[in-house]
Structure formats: C-alpha cells, structure tokens
Amino acid sequence: MEVESPEQLQRKQTTYLSFGENFEIQKEVYRGQQYSQIYFARLHWMRALLYSLVPNWKSHLPVCTILGLEEGTECIIVGTLYKHMKLKPCILDEYSKERSVAPLVKPHNFMNQDDYLVLEDESGRVKLGGTVLSPSVYVTGVVVALHGKETSAGVFFVEDVLEAGLPPQIERPLKSREDKYVVLVSGLSIGSSSSNPLQFQLLVDHITGHLGDEEEQGLVAEIVHLVIAGNSVEISRGILSGQNLASKDQSRLSEPFKELDIQLTQIAASLPLDIMPGSSDPANFSLPQQPLNRCLFPGSATFNTFRSCTNPHCFELDNIRFLGTSGQNIDDLTKYSEAKDKLDFLERTLRWRHLAPTAPNTLGCYPFTDRDPFLIDSCPDVYFVGNQEKYGTRLVKGSEGQSVRLISIPRFCETGVAVLLNMRNLECHALTFGTQFSS
Amino acid sequence: MATPPKNIEGFYKQKKSNTSKSKSSNSTKHAAATSGSNIAQPPALVSHGGSLDLEADDFDEEQQVLRQFDMNMEFGPCIGIPRIDRWERARRLGLNPPKEIESILKRGKVKRQSLFGGRT
C-alpha cells in the first residue's frame, strides 16, 4: 500500500488596509474642554450634509434656524435631537427630597410614554410635536432635518423628517472573486464561569486546519481573516474590589490573559487576526476604546499577523470595507429606544450616519474638540456589532445602490456561535461549536 | 460669609464714577454692555478688594474684535478651547474666520483663552 505524501494546503491571502487612525486618541490633548465641542463638530458636519440633501427632498420650503422660526410658517429646520426621558437616571435624583418617583427596580429600558423630543441648534431649542417623529425610535444626539411649522403653543409640529440616509459607497470592481471567508467572533469571556475552554479550542483547531479530512481542510484554507469583536476576557468582579490582592489572587487576575494568549498564538501562527477591546476588556471605558496593550499578549504579539485594534474598528480586506463595534453603541440604543430586532438598531445608526449617537449623552466618549470620529462618511460593505444575544444578519440596500451586510455577532461563551462571511458574495453563515453529545 | 470690604464708601458710592483705584481715567472709554451707562461695571457689582472684572486694557479695539470672535456662535462654543485652536478649527471646517483674528492672536499679547477663560 502506498502512502501518499500529503499536499501542502496553502491558505489564501488578502490585502489589508486599516482605517483605525480616526479612532486613536494618542494625539489628542485634554485641555478641560466640555462635550459642547464634539456636539458642535457633529452638528456642523451633519447640517452641511443635510442642507445639501434638502433641495432634493423639498426644494420649495425655506430653511431657517430655530430662533428664526415664525409661527404658522412652514419651513425646514436642522438640529440635534434631544429626548427628554422621565425615567432616565439623573445624578440629581440622589439629592431630591422626594424619593417616591424613582422606581425601586431599575428598568433595563428607560422609555416611557411621556418622553418627548426637542430639536436644538446653536440659536435655540424647540419642543417637537406631532406623530411623525416617534420618540421610541429616536435618541438624543441624532441630527435630522424636519419639515413643519411652529404652533401657537410654541411647539414645532413635525410633518416630515429627513434623515441623512446611507452614506455613499465606493464601487467595488465586480471581478469574479474566489471564495474567501472571514470569521467574526465575540464574547469569548475567557475567565468567566460560563466560558467553555473546549469550545474555544474547537474553534481554534477548526480555523487552523487541525480538524477534519482534506476536504474540510481545503474549505478552512479559504478562511483568510479572524476578527474578535470584544469581551475576550472576563475578570470576576470580586477581585476588582479595590483591595490589595494577595499573591494567590494576583495569579487569578492574569490567568485569563495567559489562556487567551496561548489560544491567540495558535491562531496568529496560522492566519491574520484583529482583536478589538470590549466593555469587559482591560481598555479605557469611553469610546473610542484604544487597542489592547501588546504586553498582554507576549506570545501572539510577536507575530505580524496579530493586530490589536480600536473599538470601533474600520478596515478593508481586498477592497471590501468592514466597520464594526464591540456592542456598546447598540446596547445603549437598546436602553433608550426600542426596535423589533437588534439589526434595526444597526440599520438606524447607518441611516443616521453615526455609529454611536447617544455618545456622549449616555455613552462614555472622549471629548474631541474638532471632529466627531463616529460619523460614518463612507458606507461600509460589512457592518457588524459584537456581543449580542443571538446571531442575525440582513442585507440593506440604499437609495443610491449601496449594499451593506449587517451582522449581529452573538456572544461565543453563551451560544458557541461564530460568524462566517464569504467575501465573494457577502453571504453569511453561523459556525456553531458544541461540546455536548446528543444522546 | 465673605470678609467686609476694605472701603465701605467706595463700595456704596452712588456717583457714576469708578472705584478708588486709579483706573478712572479709562472709565469713559468703556464700551458698556448696558446702554446709557458710562461705565462698564456699576460699583455695586465690583468684587471685594476693588478689582474690576474687565481690566482697563480690555477695551481697545483688538479686545473688542476678539470678544466678538468669542461670542460668534457660528464658530462653535468658546469655553474650554484656546482662541487660536478655535480659530484653527473654524478654518479647517471651512467657516472662513476673519484672518485678522489670527494675526492678533499670533502677536501674542492677548489672552489665550476666551473671555470666559478661568471664570466659569
């Protein structure tokens, strides 16, 4: 019997371009500025954009500032929305004499039927009325154009609303591509009681081609990139109480990182990977989160395939633009607005052209002075959010021929699901890993 | 409570002149915010110790121009950002801020922060 020498399977390659400089804050200097600066930058950019879209929408109406509103005159105003929410936690509640208003059980969602919207620009603010603009859909920080008129009560009655819509998308050359896959995973939560090391090891073994026969390995050789979208480690809260740690507890602190580094070394030896910080990772709290320090990964950081990235993260693989976050922006929208599906939130942020409209109102954010880095100026081809409850995907089409694949990446420690994206046609599949034997 | 003023008479002076400090020669040049008044700051509002909120040399033309630049909402909020950085930002955003502001600020003898700087 002859033993055939096994053929070497080559993994496919892609070109990688990073657009992460926008989210880095190394060059920023804090001089005591407040958040009014970032709101000004946001309003200025979005207003210029909306002014250019208004003629195509309703060209016959005059555009005016909020202070220039005249009662009864139909006009268009542009400004930042502010949603007044009765149940939104306020720091002053601690000092209020009557405690009866605050509910004893903290709600996960702060919406209330008495919420109302206000539109603001530099000149003033006006309360919004009418039923076109639903307070359950919008959040503070979104910039829109409104058509309506001021009533005698001083309320602006909204008849129509114009959102910025999907940004322009760079045309991708339609050359016949071959199948190349990107794996997206999030919420590994190594170190938490619910994470299963065997499940993650299965994922690593599968991606690096150590599982299966030649046919399966041939399929795996088409995986070209791995993106880890946040929450890779989870340190139990008990250790982080602020007390000095005994030496046995100190090793508990570093165990998750050692374990993660071992796994990432196996991955980095095999294919390029991007790791983003999440809400439970040791990175700064406010967005944009800065890349995890390379000294946390002594083994894997030596590989040039290892990339520590910001959150949000924007990059291009073979001219396909990816944009995504580790979930904090969508989780915040869940608290302050409602939708049938998480992908609805994702689509809304794209139509509002802003990754995190609730920053800095309810989402921690760095006080930029001259720009708002969360504005989306070029439509991505793939837009993902990590650390969600379940896997979901949708293809969104824009009015100018844009096409975006929205992906909601579930938490791997809870679901065992990673996402496999085919770069040729932007189709998505769930890659499920299980360690239970069904009887 | 605050310590009593050193000069009670100066504190409660009703005449339309300035406090006992020798800045009264410039009092007529003040461009007052309140119309119809010769002085920029009524004696009742002068802080203890007699120092004015706006010093006398704030009222030349350069300072006026800079104050108008600070107050112009078109260029965004003025608090928390140095004047030159606010001017740079306005230029970068395409708002065409007047070039004379840049030359005044680069000459260096003026306050870096806006007129609210350090007072809020």
UniProtKB/TrEMBL annotation, chain A:
Q: Which InterPro entries does this one have? A: DNA_pol_a/d/e_bsu, DNA_pol_D_N, DNA_pol_delta/II_ssu, PolD2_C
Gene Ontology annotations for the cellular component aspect, listed alphabetically: delta DNA polymerase complex
Q: Name one GO molecular function term.
A: DNA binding
Q: Which domain of life is it from?
A: Eukaryota
Keywords for the protein's UniProt record, in alphabetical order: DNA replication, DNA-directed DNA polymerase, Nucleotidyltransferase, Nucleus, Transferase
The entry's localization annotation reads: Nucleus
DNA polymerase delta subunit OB-fold domain: from which residue to which, for each copy?
34-161
Name its GO BP terms in alphabetical order.
DNA strand elongation involved in DNA replication; mitotic DNA replication
| Pfam families reported for this sequence | DNA_pol_D_N, DNA_pol_E_B
- Principal cellular location given in the protein's record: nucleus
Reactions catalysed according to its record: DNA(n) + a 2'-deoxyribonucleoside 5'-triphosphate = DNA(n+1) + diphosphate
Q: What is its EC number?
A: 2.7.7.7
Please state every residue range assigned to the domain named DNA polymerase alpha/delta/epsilon subunit B: 182-391
Q: What does this protein do?
A: The function of the small subunit is not yet clear.
Similarity field: Belongs to the DNA polymerase delta/II small subunit family.
What's the subunit arrangement here? Answer: Heterodimer with subunits of 125 kDa and 50 kDa.
Q: Can you say what this protein is called?
A: DNA polymerase delta small subunit
Q: Which organism is it from?
A: Hibiscus syriacus (Rose of Sharon)
Q: What is the lineage of its organism?
A: Eukaryota, Viridiplantae, Streptophyta, Embryophyta, Tracheophyta
